[in-house]
Specification:
With 358 residues, this protein is α/β, with parallel strands linked by helices. Helices cover 39% and strands 18% of the residues.
Length: 358
């Protein structure tokens, strides 16, 4: 008889993390149930191997009806393990309270590990959730040190997708540098990049293309869009999306990109958290597509980035761009991707499932 799990995501975000976990479970012959917000963009490529339940999910309300529906589903199917893909918030707290005295084990993926340090809601959740996953080794190392290993934390890298990759080759004569994610200046230093683009000489402008691979909005992208418009930056140099970017387009652009640029700088709102308790999705996006990262120099203390990134600061960024068109700076990075055991599917599967079953 197959082991059975429920994997749940109540938010519209973090759905990219689901695919990797589904693949882990299918690799080990689990029966997988996926409970997902009906508004979330999630492509079902599993040919009936995963039972998907899409439900209307109002995060702002107590949503008792939804919670009891989940509990009844767990009881009816005799599910012993529930994995919460985003293990924080009021809805998760209330579900944990409903399951508190049951024998069902709840395991959580926590995207903002600092909540374990200072959130009263998270303290209640942790009365039920005794195992947490984070998404990079440096987050686990920080939390283990900060809490003296008070929490049982493990790591997996969500870098595997159940999709057929098209050509990974950039057929463009330009070097493509992509910034994944919605264009929000408070999160990433887009203004710095636009100002840097304005400093480029004609040769660099001909040989480079930058892509903001995410949706823009009037409020959160206003400063960036105004700067681009004012300086009449050509789309061949900087491509910006005005509408929603589909998963298909997102994946295609990443496959064609030469470098991933997270743009996490000291001016970013969550800069300190990105150095300790959370990650940018751009990190694992680069790992998934085996792309070199261009990263602010403060990240050069972490093992993964030492192997897969080139580093810069505010003063030498343009000089780094000049080097990219004159030298092959990625030979070692490409070699590291081929030989890095940590990013192997079988290795990650064993690590994840062993923790789930421990």
């Amino acid at each position: 008889m197959k082991k059975e799990v429920l994997l749940a995501e109540f938010n519209k975000s973090h759905t990219e993390v689901l695919h990797t976990q589904i693949l882990f479970f299918l690799q080990k012959n689990y029966k997988v149930n996926l409970w997902i917000n009906h508004e979330a963009e999630f492509e079902d490529n599993y040919e009936g191997k995963v039972k998907i339940i899409r439900e209307d999910t109002k995060i702002s309300s107590l949503n008792i009806g939804l919670l009891y529906k989940i509990v009844r589903f767990v009881q009816r199917n005799k599910i012993k393990k529930v994995i919460l893909n985003t293990a924080h918030g009021i809805l998760v707290r209330n579900l944990c309270l409903l399951l508190m005295n049951s024998k069902v084990e709840v395991i959580g993926v926590i995207h903002q590990a600092h909540k374990l340090l200072k959130s009263s809601t998270q303290r209640i959740i942790s009365r039920k959730i005794k195992k947490y996953f984070v998404l990079n080794d440096y987050v686990k190392e920080f939390m283990d040190t900060k809490t003296n290993k008070a929490y049982n934390i493990n790591v997996f890298y969500p870098i595997f997708f159940n999709t057929k990759n098209s050509s990974n080759k950039n057929n463009n004569s330009k070097i493509i540098i992509t910034v994944p994610g919605n264009v929000i200046q408070t999160r990433k230093d887009y203004v710095f990049l636009v100002k840097s683009i304005l400093k480029l000489n004609d040769e660099l402008k001909q040989k480079l293309q930058f892509i903001f691979l995410g949706t823009t909005s009037k409020n959160e992208s206003a400063e960036v869009l105004e700067l681009v418009s004012k300086n009449k930056i050509d789309e061949n140099l900087l491509r910006i999306y005005k509408k929603h970017v589909s998963d298909e387009e997102f994946n295609h652009v990443l496959q064609q990109s030469d470098y991933i640029l997270p743009l996490i700088h000291p001016s970013s709102n969550s800069y300190n958290e990105y150095l300790s308790t959370e990650i940018s999705g751009a990190f694992n996006t680069a790992f998934a597509f085996k792309k070199p990262l261009l990263m602010f120099e403060s990240f050069n203390k972490f093992e993964d980035f030492k192997k897969f990134a080139l580093f810069y600061n505010e003063k030498n960024f343009v000089q780094l761009l000049e080097r990219l068109i004159k030298e092959d700076l990625t030979k070692e990075i490409k070699k590291n991707y081929e030989n890095y055991k940590k990013f192997n599917l079988d290795f990650q599967t064993e690590n994840y499932i062993n923790f789930i079953e421990s």
